């Protein structure tokens, strides 16, 4: 997918009419600011779109939320049903429901999950850090090794190391995550006991006082190193599983981006000038590959936040993915909407940041 | 090209050193982690002050007047006391807890009298007012358990006693009172937090986080999706419980097994019977027994929705074609064949039945009589429940042997319930868990009642107000027996009428009872946890 | 989903016909790639050959599945949960069915459904992308925003919700995944069409009186089809992973027909019977990795001969 984003970027140069006034001046004199502004507007539009999609989606779900919320006895009582419908605003026309939904959203109110009976905002505050912790851990790990190994493979193109990395990475993207998870769980935990089982901490250890909600960070803040060690230890296995496919695919991506960059004229020129090879590699080649790799990182991060459903379900990691899955199975509409929105917003935000960094790094984008 | 502004050379060097540092930190942390957990594990065997429980739960509410989830029950049992209780899974007669009871000869008035002094966690004594308030709240807020006290008037008699008066004879009341849903809450605390005895009640939020009971424990922390910790209620009137702290973790069943084997947990609630059977005595004790849940098949009795399955002969053919032993084996240790809808260890249960017996030849004859002509039969089950999925496939294979073409329709539990409730689906697999161990809880199976409505089973009279369903002969035939069971009084008469009713149901009803599900509690050697039919596990009796 | 360099390059390259050999005379190309028996060199790497053999074996398995199954995959005659043995090579499952037979039978569900999925999402995505790229203007704008949205919305969760709402079945799972995967094709095709629509032969075609429809389908489409085919091939493995993932969550294939992902999920709750999950997962892995080995080689070959003719180094 990442590559498609890249492909979509160099949009067709449009013959624009020179529009007078502020916009033209902005475009001419502050191209970067204009670019950021434009990306910001697009991001805003996307956020709006995500709210619309979640709303439409949850209205298409055939389950009747009222029946699920009300108990057995009350669901048979038409009066109670009508009251609950009124409370949920289900008696109003759709566009009005959507408007009310947006108004609530602006106030940070995502409704109440009927599964947990808690405000969805509270639920998300609890589960999001768990996913962020796992995802962030994997992200750092993946970026470091992915870029280094990918670069190494490209520089040793067609040598043994390249071939080995290629086979490993092809293998990595081919393993079903849920199966890898189950097998790691079975062999590394159940049979060999090398890693702890599911969950974020041993059951005897109480979570550190909540600051960020991420146990590793919070335990550092609290200066509780035993808890920190335990939290990291619990992270290892799910992180390994989640990292496998992501690392493999990032390595391959970096490799091909670097290979492409190696054939650019300025790199060939730098080589011809006789610059030392490390300067060519880091100053020219990697720099040339930076834009696609940055874009890829943004997608990777967003993917880690959204794509951990399977890993979380194997390791009973009480994060966003598990929450989304439970909400989906129970058709907890408010919960599903909340998850959709938070993930959409994270995705859009990360892409916005990546766009800005790209704008700084790559002038070609700015010029457009 | 200017390399000064953005030197990737430096970035890469930093990156390399960061990797190295990260790797070191990781390995250090891993060592620390490993050590930490070893300590935890070893302390598990010596430290008797806290009990670690693994339970695969989805808590929805911790308000005793609303809660209806199995995982909540054992937690509430430890934090709230009820008027009466059962001892050692003996369901034949309730024993005193906070109160003693008497029941009038006409089965209409139950009198509860305070049995000694009991104290809430804040030191206040449990009074008759608290009990009356608790019962009235259950009735008034119309939560799931409100039906326990339907048609009952609760009144304070004096400072020592209260009466529960029913309009019609209600011999089940003493059997209902031990339910945790009828746990006694502290009136002043609940009221201070928005509690009322009508639907405006707003105490649920408070009660989700704080217990307001007189049990040996009280809530310490509650995270409904991950962890509940209980601490001792120092004011508890009875014997001091063995453990100071109980930690209940939300853990999936696979981990429970490894935790039990590793000794990192003391009690595991959800180890399936296949795994439990493989545990050795050194690893764990397994305590299994029949639960109060009956798994049954239902076939829509209304021809417009049930089509061919609405035929009594068809259902009876199925009854004979089901290979019961296989189903019992699948549910594992503790399970028994269900001979009627009432679980075997309850009053009025059928101990055996010639109608529910595997006999393929007779089944085929009955099927022929029913006029079944290879139509596809839609069969509903919970696709997100592993055992239901297996049972559905087992059933499909049995039906194939009979010559019936079953189409499995799996739906996630929530959706499935909606479908089942509509009363328009053809057939399916369902489970009825006892709310209280008394046959009265099984009137839902009688024509025109809740389960019967879902299976489209109405009497001619009942169908008139059913909004589109037809009455059926089998329902009309059985109506007098239902009446007899309702009016019976005294244990013997109640048992007899219920057995008669179930015999009749086994000959002409939309239900085929399959299995009384077994359940187990697995505990580390030395913990000695016993499976408790009503509460799953009763922490208060651990010694 | 895996990255693909074709898409990355596609937008910036001109007509495939023009750059086919990168200006190098045909003879030289033939010499460089050493075509023997008409198989390009890139497809003769050890990995590609292993991949092709494994895929061919799976195709044979699919065709001859009923003959290869030692037992009826639905027959519940074995002892429950027995370990792999001479009688039951991969052991038996919770209902005593032969897992070996079920793994084989499942190939007829899992593999064809991912192929169907790829076909649907490529056709839908390509049509939309072609429209957007060819007509431009507000159609293009609207299309770009919609794909942005689909990308922005978490695809796993979207697919989960859709299949939960429609009710679990393999058909609904396919629909759900198609709904979230078409934009990949749409973006590729859009950028290819953008590159081609102003090239000489298309303009000449228009001048000769071709309708937009004919121009799009007769002039442009044949030139971008190979790109689409390569992406489809590369995508196939991912689709199998996504579909079996949904089945694993209980939102895909429904019993009693075996499906690999669903078989793995049956095993996860029973740790002591590792064979329940191990073999079906291994089946998925072998198919996907073989497919990726071949896909990788196909892409290399394609990049070299169609796109990067002047960059022999890649």
In terms of topology, how is this protein built?
The complex is a heterotrimer of chains A (368), B (543) and C (314).
Chain A (H helix, E strand, L loop, with lengths): L1 H7 L13 H8 L1 H30 L4 H5 L2 H4 L2 H11 L5 H13 L13 H36 L4 H15 L2 H15 L23 H7 L3 H38 L2 H9 L3 H30 L2 H6 L5 H10 L3 H29 L1 H5 L1
Chain B lengths: L7 H39 L3 E6 L14 H10 L4 E2 L9 E2 L2 E5 L5 E6 L13 H13 L11 E5 L4 E6 L6 H4 L10 H6 L11 H6 L7 E7 L3 E6 L12 E6 L2 H10 L4 E2 L4 H5 L7 E15 L3 H4 L5 H10 L2 H8 L4 E2 L22 H11 L5 E7 L3 H17 L2 E7 L1 H9 L5 E7 L16 H5 L5 H4 L9 H15 L3 H15 L5 E13 L7 E2 L3 E2 L6
Parallel strand pairs in B: 1-10, 1-11, 14-15, 14-16
Antiparallel strand pairs in B: 2-3, 4-5, 5-7, 6-7, 8-9, 9-10, 11-17, 12-16, 12-17, 13-17, 18-19
Chain C lengths: L4 H6 L5 H4 L6 H8 L12 H23 L30 H37 L1 H16 L2 H12 L3 H27 L3 H8 L4 H37 L11 H9 L6 H33 L7
Helix pairs in contact in C: 4-5, 4-12, 5-6, 5-8, 5-10, 5-12, 6-8, 7-8, 8-10, 9-10, 10-11, 10-12, 11-12
Can you characterise this structure?
The complex is a heterotrimer of chains A (368), B (543) and C (314). Chain A has 368 residues and is an all-alpha fold. Helix content of chain A is 76%, strand content 0%. Chain A contains 18 helices and no strands. In chain A, helix 16 (320-329) runs antiparallel to helix 17 (333-361). Chain A is globular, with a radius of gyration of 25 Å. Mean pLDDT of chain A is 81; it is low at 1-18. In chain B, strand 6 and strand 7 form a beta hairpin. Chain C is mainly α and 314 residues long. Chain C has helices spanning 5-10, 16-19, 26-33, 46-68, 99-135, 137-152, 155-166, 170-196, 200-207, 212-248, 260-268, 275-307. In chain C, helix 4 (46-68) packs across helix 5 (99-135). The longest helix of chain C has 37 residues, at 99-135. Chain C is elongated and about 75 Å long. The two termini of chain C are 22 Å apart. Residues 1-36 and 308-314 of chain C have low confidence and may be disordered.
């Amino acid at each position: 997918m990442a590559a498609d984003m890249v492909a979509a970027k160099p949009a067709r140069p449009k013959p624009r009419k020179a529009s007078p006034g502020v916009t033209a001046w902005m475009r001419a004199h502050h191209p970067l600011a204009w670019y950021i502004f434009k990306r910001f507007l697009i991001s805003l539009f996307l956020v709006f779109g995500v709210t619309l999609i979640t709303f439409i989606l949850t209205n298409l779900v055939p389950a009747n939320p009222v029946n699920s919320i009300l108990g057995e006895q009350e669901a048979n009582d038409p009066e109670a049903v009508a009251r609950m419908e009124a409370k949920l605003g289900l008696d109003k026309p759709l566009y009005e429901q959507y408007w009310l939904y947006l108004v609530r959203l602006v106030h940070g109110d995502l409704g109440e999950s009927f599964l947990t009976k808690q405000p969805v905002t509270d639920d998300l505050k609890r589960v999001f850090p768990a996913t962020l912790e796992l995802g962030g851990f994997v992200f750092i790990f993946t970026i470091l090794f992915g870029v280094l190994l990918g670069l190494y493979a490209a520089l040793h193109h067609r040598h043994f190391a390249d071939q080995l990395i290629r086979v490993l990475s092809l293998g990595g993207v081919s393993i079903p995550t849920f199966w890898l998870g189950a097998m790691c769980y079975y062999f590394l935990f159940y049979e060999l006991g090398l890693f702890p089982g599911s969950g974020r901490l041993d059951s005897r250890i109480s979570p550190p006082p909540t600051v960020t909600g991420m146990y590793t960070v919070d335990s550092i803040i609290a200066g509780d190193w035993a808890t920190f060690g335990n939290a990291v230890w619990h992270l290892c296995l799910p992180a390994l599983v989640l990292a496998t496919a992501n690392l493999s695919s990032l390595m391959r991506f970096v490799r091909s981006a670097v290979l492409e960059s190696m054939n650019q004229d300025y790199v060939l020129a730098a080589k011809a000038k006789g610059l030392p090879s490390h300067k060519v590699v880091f100053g020219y080649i990697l720099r040339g590959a930076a834009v696609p790799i940055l874009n890829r990182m943004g997608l990777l991060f967003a993917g880690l936040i959204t794509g951990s459903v399977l890993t979380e379900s194997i390791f009973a990691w009480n994060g966003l993915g598990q929450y989304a899955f439970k909400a989906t199975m129970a058709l907890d509409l408010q919960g599903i909407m909340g998850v959709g929105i938070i993930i959409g917003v994270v995705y859009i935000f990360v892409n916005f940041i990546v766009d800005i960094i790209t704008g700084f790094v790559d002038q070609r984008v700015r010029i457009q | 090209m200017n390399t000064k502004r953005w030197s990737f050379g430096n970035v890469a060097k930093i990156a390399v050193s960061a990797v190295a540092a990260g790797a070191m930190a990781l390995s250090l942390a891993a060592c620390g982690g490993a050590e930490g957990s070893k300590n935890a594990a070893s302390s598990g065997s010596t430290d008797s002050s806290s009990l670690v429980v693994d339970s695969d739960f989805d808590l929805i509410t911790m308000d005793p007047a609303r809660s209806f989830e199995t995982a909540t029950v054992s937690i509430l049992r430890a934090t709230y006391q009820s008027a009466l209780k059962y001892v050692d899974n003996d369901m034949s007669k309730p024993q005193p807890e906070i109160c003693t009871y008497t029941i009038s000869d006409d089965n209409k008035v139950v009198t509860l009298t305070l049995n000694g002094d009991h104290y809430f966690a804040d030191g206040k004594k449990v009074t008759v007012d608290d009990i009356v308030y608790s019962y009235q709240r259950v009735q008034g807020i119309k939560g799931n358990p409100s039906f326990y006290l339907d048609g009952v008037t609760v009144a304070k008699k004096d400072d020592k006693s209260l009466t529960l008066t029913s309009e019609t004879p209600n011999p089940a009341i003493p059997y209902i009172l031990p339910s945790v849903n009828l746990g006694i809450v502290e009136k002043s605390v609940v009221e201070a937090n928005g509690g009322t005895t009508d639907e405006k009640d707003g105490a649920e939020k408070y009660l989700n986080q704080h217990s307001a009971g007189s049990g040996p424990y009280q809530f310490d922390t509650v995270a409904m999706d991950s962890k509940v910790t209980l601490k001792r209620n120092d004011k508890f009137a009875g014997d001091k419980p063995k453990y100071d702290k109980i930690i209940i973790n939300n853990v999936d069943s696979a981990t429970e097994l490894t935790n039990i084997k590793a000794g990192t947990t003391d009690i595991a609630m959800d180890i399936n019977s296949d795994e439990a059977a493989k545990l050795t005595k050194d690893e764990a004790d397994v305590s299994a027994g029949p639960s109060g849940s009956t798994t049954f098949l239902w076939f829509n009795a209304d021809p417009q929705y049930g089509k061919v399955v609405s035929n009594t002969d068809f259902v009876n053919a199925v009854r004979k074609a089901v290979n019961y032993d296989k189903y019992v084996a699948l549910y594992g240790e503790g399970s028994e064949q269900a001979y009627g809808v009432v679980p075997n260890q309850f009053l009025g249960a059928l101990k055996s039945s010639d109608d529910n017996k595997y006999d393929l030849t007779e089944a085929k004859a009955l099927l022929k009589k029913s006029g079944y002509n290879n139509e596809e039969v839609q069969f509903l089950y919970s696709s997100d429940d592993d055992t239901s999925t297996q049972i559905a496939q087992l059933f499909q294979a049995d039906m194939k042997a009979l010559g019936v073409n079953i189409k499995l329709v799996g739906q996630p539990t929530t959706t499935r319930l909606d479908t089942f409730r509509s009363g328009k689906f053809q057939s399916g697999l369902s489970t009825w868990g006892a709310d209280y161990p008394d046959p009265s809880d099984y009137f839902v199976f009688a024509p025109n009642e809740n389960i019967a409505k879902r299976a489209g089973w109405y009497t001619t009279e009942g169908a008139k107000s059913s909004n589109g369903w037809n009455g059926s002969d089998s329902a009309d035939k059985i109506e007098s027996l239902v009446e007899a069971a309702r009016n019976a009084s005294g244990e013997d008469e109640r048992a007899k009428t219920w057995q008669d009713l179930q015999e009749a149901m086994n000959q002409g009803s939309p239900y085929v009872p399959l299995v009384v599900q077994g359940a187990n509690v697995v505990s580390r050697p030395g913990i000695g946890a016993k499976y408790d039919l009503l509460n799953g596990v009763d922490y208060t009796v651990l010694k | 989903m895996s990255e693909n360099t074709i898409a990355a390059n596609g937008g910036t390259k001109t007509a495939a016909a023009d750059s086919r050999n990168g200006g190098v005379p045909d003879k030289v190309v033939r010499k460089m790639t050493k075509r023997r028996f008409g198989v390009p060199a890139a497809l003769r790497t050890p990995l590609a050959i292993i991949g092709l053999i494994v895929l061919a074996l799976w195709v044979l398995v699919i065709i001859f599945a009923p003959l290869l199954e030692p037992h009826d995959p639905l027959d519940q005659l074995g002892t429950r949960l027995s370990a792999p043995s001479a009688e039951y090579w991969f052991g038996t499952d919770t209902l005593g069915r032969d897992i070996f037979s079920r793994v084989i039978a499942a190939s007829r569900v899992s593999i064809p459904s991912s192929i169907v999925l790829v076909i649907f999402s490529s056709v839908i995505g390509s049509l939309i992308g072609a429209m957007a790229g060819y007509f431009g203007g507000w159609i293009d704008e609207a299309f770009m925003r919609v794909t942005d949205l689909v990308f922005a919305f978490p695809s796993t969760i979207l697919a989960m919700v859709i299949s939960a709402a429609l009710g679990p079945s393999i058909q609904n799972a396919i629909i759900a995944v198609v709904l979230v995967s078409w934009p990949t094709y749409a973006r590729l095709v859009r950028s290819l069409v953008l590159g081609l629509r102003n090239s000489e032969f298309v303009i000449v075609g228009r001048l000769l009186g071709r309708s937009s429809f004919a121009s799009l389908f007769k002039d442009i489409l044949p030139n971008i089809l190979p790109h689409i085919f390569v992406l489809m091939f590369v995508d196939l493995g991912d689709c199998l992973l996504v579909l079996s993932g949904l089945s694993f969550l209980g939102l895909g294939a429904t019993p009693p027909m075996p499906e690999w992902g669903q078989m793995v999920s049956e095993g996860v709750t029973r740790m002591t019977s590792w064979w329940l999950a191990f073999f079906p997962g291994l089946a998925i892995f072998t198919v996907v990795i073989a497919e990726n080995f071949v896909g990788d080689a196909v892409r290399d070959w394609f990049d070299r001969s169609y796109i990067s003719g002047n960059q022999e180094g890649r």
